[in-house]
């Protein structure tokens, strides 16, 4: 059994980690921390866990994190970077669900996240935890930068096109729509049901923190800098991301075959039949990305539709997938939940 | 492995049975029928099942139902009664998720359901499949009448009070609220998102088909006829039932202790702490009923709050629970999903 | 033109007052205050008001409230009571949408609201602003206590039965369901879309602040103290209250005739045909209460269904109705919006 | 008073016409037809109209349509074209909310709509009723083709760029999101709350009927054929369209000034401040299009955000706006409702 610690489990990625790990046959939930809620049973905050998770939130100062085999950070940005060095030194593997280790260029990170990085030397070591891209590196990593939700959906959707070199790299467009759980479990007026319900809006058009993360990933795959316009939107649902991706073809290619070949053998990426439209509910509560590729009217614009559950393949499920790889387990272990529909 | 057949799997109880049985370690999905959709892969209708259920809908005329160990009817009312006799004769156990065998008094059934019963002789044999009430009888049954969704939530909530004889039996009130999946996967205007969304209404106040089912169950427990007012409401959510129950106390009793004692040892009934309020999302997608009991201002009115997922403990999950009992398996086998929150 | 001031217009009752008053032919929006947002154009906070309301939030210390003919308090509880004395002295009429003047018994108020009342002498003078009950008194009032949302729906539903003396007064039950805007525009986790969406729960069963307000109103109408069980619920919609009321008949009466007679001539109370079920969306964004009365199975329990828009007839619309009465205008002036459906 | 007839008022554009016209000071609702519902009071189908619209649905065969000054067709596609000739001959003006007269090229229309056109000679005469484009022509028209919902949002958003000749016309992208009322009041499984709720998906990527309508409009404005990729999506809300538009700049231009100038003086188009994001709820139930224009990271891709209420500016409100123009009334008459928020 893998001894698991979770730092900061009071948000949605925290409760989702708990849901998945409580059912994982090789994980032993050992400690979960929250400075603010120390002493409170986890199931008092998250009533779905009643009878399934008996832990109480522990003070991070005294929690036995160093006795764990792996520690997940389900914290706001800027926390993991202050504690990772010590944990790694104690032989603990670290999976950060926040953004502290996602951007290799530290000055870019500092610009977008508005903080000074506390351990820039570890940024280089960290492996970007998108298994469909980086599986081999993940196997031997100590420190995983778990991808953001939008970046997961967008990169998985664009990757086959970019790796194959068939699209104009200067004018990629990602129009992405997210459910409100992506904003986290924070008391903010704009995320109230009375504000976000029955409403749709774009946000962050001028620049969203996931833009440099996506650009970095696509640029690496392309072997050159790419030009990306990324527009995120808030949609009145709880879970789910739908990325609609646009690129201009500059070579003839069998798009369907390209995507099927790229993801053959991937347990968590499902390429749909031509002409279909994936729905976010088809992946609700499960660690799956479903993708369809279109070429409307046979023109030179390719449209890729990519859906994930932002809390699973876009966060906690992918983190568990990374844990499985890190510890040499079957990659699908504990991640075989059937999506919930309706 | 138990060979399982499903008759009529194109509705919500059907897809939920498939979700649960696809993950059940002792169930082998053998056949699923739909006259209208024969030949269509199940996963084309229910995209959450892609990669998990490979069956196609089969024509009921040729489907190998008699080779099954158990057949679930996830059909409209009035179908199971026409096919059960033959299946039982072939040694197949039958679990009907519709109402054909729920009401012991055939004339009452015929009045409320507006049909002539096709096999009244089997009504007497059928066991009402509420395990928390009828576990022993279920063990040796051939034919299970799986309870309705409202009746499950209401009976589990009232039962401790009635068995203990502490409330006025003539004036029970059940004010129940259901998500729209309870109306089934039928093309009806009133259930459109544009009609049922952002809206709340009562329906069937003059008389709902679940009234005689609940009355029968409560009357049996009471040993006398009870007087029940049952008002169902439609609430703009997908899954979930919340029953708010009112009864007048006519004896002093420790309500909390009464409920805890009644459900001690029950894996699927969770009595919450005094003063709390169960939420429907705390049981979303799981086979659990959570109950809290209140006595506002210390008066003589007891208020019971009872929540279930109408598609799980209110339908397909309870059906699998009954299957487990019928076949001598652990009652919780394949039913240990953690509820999805948020 | 009536010069109107609004104190504290940053919540939902504030924006709804602005929407209604901006279209009111006799109201002149003169000032709106917010300590925190002073200087911000109102339409920057509430984009629906762009081009329709040009005011900026003003500091309450300098806002010309005393030059107004009427001031609405759309503030949290406990604010109006500190400023009303001075405004009345300046000849300004006051309509408080909060609870400061609703409960005649000051000690009861202080117990439920947890504060010391700042001007108990005005409590006696204040008129409870439910026009269908108190129209005559409102005409000559200086200070209106605008009713709460639940109290409006519940009192209008129970009133005909109580005034006619046909029900058991000791065991009234009000099972009420509210959309989330009733909780106000406050940053609170439980009201997030990701928490309150696709979810249903009761709250405050042990005691909600609207209980003494409703009890007071019903007791006055009955001429004796009544026994009421009040259970509010949160339903995943934005606007709307549905009250389901239960009482035991102790006299034979033509219920339909009783309700129709009681509300004949009332512009804002609509008694539906027998056997029908009012929907909250049928009153969305309009100042109407729709009521249907049922007697299921001809038993002795009467069921009343009463719906309002909590922000209109349950708050701001009723406040404007009160303003119309106070100033001798047609009661329906500016309140003839057709409800929005779908 | 203008005598108004409505053909086919049982859908959402019908009820919205009724809501608007019931409050219009110069409109007299004279007749409304429905073959299927003849004899039913309109307010029985649409409870929001109780007390406000006293009409019953009339059989179209006998309804006094020819006595009207104007007839609105709120029918499925293919109905108006069979009745318009006769109405025009009787001197009645016709406003078709369906698509029968929107596409000038009849063969294109017949291909996309799968029918033979019943009166191709009138197609040429019909004026496309987008007042911000065609105001002068509308004034003297007999027959108005009221634009589709997506086409309204997309054309208003793209028009300033195209008229100014500052973008690459071959690679326009319109990523549009609609609430479910856009699908109409039809009993279809995919639009059930249990299907479309908490879900997001694209549809019609291979080709949607609004594509030729939008292309025609943009091509006319450009004076040349444009290349457009149009991807519609279904979002879980009732009302609202959000169009996110992408184009590549090929000239330097002050985008904000361009948009402000283009729509100066337009009562129903609101250009927001730079850097902002319009929300669909900011136009809910009102005849407004709000637009913001962005140029992310100062690159060569311009992003336009355009929102409307699909049932108002995208259908019935725009139809009333056209009626006002046709009859020489103030264009805003009866269309000054403040949007509903929250």
Structure commentary:
Four copies of one chain form a homotetramer. Chain A is an alpha/beta fold and 342 residues long. Chain A folds into two domains: 2-125, Rossmann fold, CATH 3.40.50.720; 150-310, Dihydrodipicolinate Reductase, domain 2. Chain A contains eleven helices and 14 strands. In chain A, the strands form two sheets. Chain A has a seven-stranded parallel β-sheet with strand order 3-2-1-4-5-7-6, with helices on both faces. In chain A, strands 9-10-8-11-14-13-12 form a seven-stranded mixed β-sheet. In chain A, strand 1, helix 1 (12-22) and strand 2 form a beta-alpha-beta unit. In chain A, helix 6 runs parallel beside helix 11 and helix 7 (149-163) packs parallel to helix 9. The radius of gyration of chain A is 19 Å and the shape is globular. The two termini of chain A are 34 Å apart. Chains in contact: A-B, A-C, A-D, B-C, B-D, C-D. Chains A and D meet through strand 8, strand 9, strand 10, strand 11 and strand 14 of A and strand 8, strand 9, strand 10, strand 11 and strand 14 of D.
Element layout with pairings:
The structure is a homotetramer of 342-residue chains.
Chain A: E1 2-7, H1 12-22, E2 27-33, H2 42-45, E3 57-58, E4 70-73, H3 80-89, E5 93-96, H4 106-113, H5 120-125, E6 127-128, H6 131-139, E7 143-145, H7 149-163, E8 172-178, H8 193-196, E9 201-202, H9 210-222, E10 228-234, E11 241-248, H10 255-263, E12 269-271, E13 289-294, E14 301-308, H11 312-326
């Amino acid at each position: 059994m893998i001894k698991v610690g979770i730092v900061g489990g009071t948000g949605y990625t925290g409760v989702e980690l708990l849901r998945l790990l409580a059912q994982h046959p090789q994980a032993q939930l050992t400690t979960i921390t929250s400075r603010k809620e120390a002493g409170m049973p986890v199931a008092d905050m998250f009533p779905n866990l009643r009878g399934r998770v008996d832990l109480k939130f522990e003070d991070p100062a005294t929690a036995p994190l160093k006795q764990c085999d792996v520690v997940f950070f389900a914290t706001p940005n800027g926390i993991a970077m202050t504690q990772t060095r010590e944990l790694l030194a104690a032989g603990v593997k670290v999976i950060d669900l926040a953004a502290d280790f996602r951007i290799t260029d530290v000055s870019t990170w500092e610009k977008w996240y508005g903080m000074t990085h506390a351990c820039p030397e570890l940024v280089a070591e960290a492996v970007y935890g998108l298994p469909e891209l980086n599986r081999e590196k993940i196997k031997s990593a100590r420190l995983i930068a778990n991808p953001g939700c939008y970046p997961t959906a967008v990169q998985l959707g664009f990757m086959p096109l970019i790796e194959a070199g068939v699209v104009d790299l200067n004018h990629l467009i990602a129009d992405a729509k997210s459910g409100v759980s992506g904003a986290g479990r924070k008391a903010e007026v704009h995320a109230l049901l009375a504000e976000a319900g029955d409403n749709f809006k774009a946000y962050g058009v001028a620049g969203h923190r996931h833009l440099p993360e996506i650009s970095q990933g696509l640029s690496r795959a392309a072997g050159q800098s790419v030009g990306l316009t990324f527009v995120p939107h808030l949609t009145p649902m709880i879970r789910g991301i739908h990325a609609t991706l646009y690129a201009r073809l500059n070579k003839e290619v069998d798009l369907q075959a390209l995507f099927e070949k790229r993801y053959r053998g991937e347990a968590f990426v499902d390429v749909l039949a031509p002409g279909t439209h994936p729905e976010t509910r088809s992946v609700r509560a499960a660690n799956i990305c479903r993708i369809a590729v279109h070429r409307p009217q046979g023109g030179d614009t390719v449209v890729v539709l990519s859906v994930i559950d932002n809390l699973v393949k876009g966060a906690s499920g992918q983190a568990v997938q990374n844990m499985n790889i890190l510890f040499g387990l079957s990659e699908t272990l504990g991640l075989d939940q059937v999506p919930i529909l309706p």
